[in-house]
Amino acid sequence: MSFNNLETLYRQVIMDHYKNPRNRGVIEGDALTVDMNNPTCGDRIQLHLQVEEGKVKDAKFQGEGCSISMSSASMMTQAIKGKTVTEALEMSKHFSEMMLGEELDSDLDLGDAQALSGVSQFPARIKCATLAWKAMEKGINHK
Amino acid sequence: MDVRAIRQMFPILDQEVNGHPLVYLDSSATSQKPISVIEAVENYYRFDNANVHRGVHTLGSRATDQYEGAREKVRRFINAGSTAEVIFTRGTTTSINTVAYSYARANLKPEDEILITPMEHHSNIIPWQQAAKATGATLKYIPLQDDGTVALEDVKSLVTDQTKIVAIAHVSNVLGTINPIKEIAQIAHAKGAVLLIDGAQGAPHMKVDVQDLDCDFYAFSGHKMCAPTGIGVLYGKRELLEEMEPVEFGGEMIDFVSLQDSTWKELPWKFEGGTPIIAGAIGLAAAIDFLEDVGMENILDHEQKLADYVMDRLSTVEDIKIYGPEHRAALVTFNLGDVHPHDVATALDSFGIAVRAGHHCAQPLMKWLNVTATARASFYLYNTEDDVEKLMDGLLKTKEFFGHVF
């Protein structure tokens, strides 16, 4: 049985993040908390960000949703940890462009999140993939 | 009933999706349209388009005749006593909101109660939440049995002298539960409450006789019964509609207008402010012709057989959890092991099978089921046992794929 089409979307690294999420949990103490959901499908995420001196010191998430939204949250937190706020926002922009299937004009390293590029071929799932990134943007912009 | 011949009347079904023949199992969201409906709308725009109720010219008369002819067709379809009781709306949501704005706000007092169930679609919950907030009335819920049905004893004990409105789905869009409307109407009326039926999943699939059901309001949408989007119906008993104020004001719905005051047209037009949904109503009339040619009894019979078949087949899938009662309308809501329903829907789509995934506009029901989302396959007159087999095959492949990548 060939699942070529599905394998474009559900790469091994994505399923690994879904099964073994990184940075799942809450940050105790002084952290930014952002709740965001996808009202059309019920995916929801709570993101905790610890930002100090313009840098993302720590990022954790909890929530419920499909493999794409949850793996994306795991990958996103991994990608932005240790980055400056400006870098994190740039990565989010880069990620959104990747979702739209656009030619990327920067060579930012999104780490494992790069594996989600196949989502661009599944328009109905783009919102799943961008949920965590949008939550991160909201948290940083409202700080 | 010749399903093969029926399928040929739906041009959209004859296509491949992701390299597989389309298997459309999302008719509860919206049904497909037969060629006769598509052509009726096209012909109206091609030959007869004009505004209704005002033009002296010939096209205006043709458009008016077709629009009002559609109303008479709907009246017969649901056996309303008069066309005065048939109001065209944008759909079920607008129909229910019309009652919640007009009837509910005028009649509810702080000590009153509105009674609904947790199985309702958001469109039969939120209008009542808002009406309760506006009037100080209380919104109460009839609890569900474990199998997702409503017990008439519960209805009896919850309908009290305080109950002014009971609102319930004819058929649940998630559980497939078919509610005992006639019995609920008797209970509601015994205490002086009015009964509104959300018929979005009822009218497309079974013969509805509003006089026999004795409901006070019946709301439904055209697009779930082979008609275009943007047209729906609010049936209401004449004596209630007469007392109700319009919700939208403007052209079309007035009798006399002076500088400070105006009077309304008679029923049903006082509820149809603005240029009406003429093409939609004409499309709905063509859809009713189509459905009645097939026969509503035949459609229900076909769907009941499909419902039994799909339940028999799907219940054999390992790790599947099916929600709702044994006896149901032709839809099945389920979860497949630990695979998230969005992932199930994406996988099925890759095999050309269209199902819905998510909360189905029924978040309180999802909470009752203790899930965040589910997948749903829903069937209509053009679906066959072969579609069920393709769904089975798709589900087994989906299990294999996610079993393999996990």
Q: Identify the CATH homologous superfamily of the largest domain in chain B.
A: Type I PLP-dependent aspartate aminotransferase-like (Major domain)
Mean pLDDT of chain B: 96
User: What profile does the largest beta sheet of chain B have?
Assistant: 7 strands, mixed
Approximate strand percentage of chain A = 15-25%
Mean pLDDT of chain A: 92
* CATH T-level topology of chain A: Sufe protein. Chain: A
Task: Please provide the ordered H/E string of secondary-structure elements of chain A.
Answer: HHEEEHHH
Unreliably modeled segments of chain A: none
- CATH class of chain A equals Alpha Beta
SS summary, helix count of chain A: 5
Main pleated sheet of chain A: 3 strands, antiparallel
Description:
Chain A: Pfam families: NifU_N (PF01592). Chain A: GO terms for molecular function: iron ion binding; iron-sulfur cluster binding. Chain A: Belongs to the NifU family. Chain A: It comes from Ornithinibacillus bavariensis. Chain A: This is Iron-sulfur cluster assembly scaffold protein NifU. The complex is a heterodimer of chains A (about 140) and B (about 400). In chain A, a hairpin with a 2-residue loop joins β2 (about 45-50) and β3 (about 55-65). Chain A is an alpha+beta fold and about 140 residues long. Chain A starts with a helix and ends with a helix. In chain A, about 40% of the residues lie in helices and about 20% in strands. Chain A has a single domain (about 5-140), classed as Sufe protein. Chain: A. The radius of gyration of chain A is 14 Å and the shape is globular. The model of chain A has no long low-confidence stretch (mean pLDDT about 90). Chain B is of the alpha/beta class. Chain B has two domains: about 5-30 and about 295-400, Alpha-Beta Complex (Aspartate Aminotransferase, domain 1); about 40-295, 3-Layer(aba) Sandwich (Aspartate Aminotransferase, domain 2). Helix content of chain B is about 40%, strand content about 15%. Chain B contains 14 helices and 17 strands. Chain B has helices spanning about 5-10, 35-50, 60-80, 90-105, 125-135, 150-160, 180-190, 210-215, 240-245, 280-295, 295-315, 340-350, 365-370, 385-405; strands spanning about 15, 20, 25, 85-90, 115, 140, 165-170, 195-200, 215-220, 230-235, 255, 260-265, 320-325, 330-335, 355, 355-360, 375-380. The longest helix of chain B has 21 residues, at about 60-80. The interface of A and B includes residues 10, 41, 42 and 68 of A.
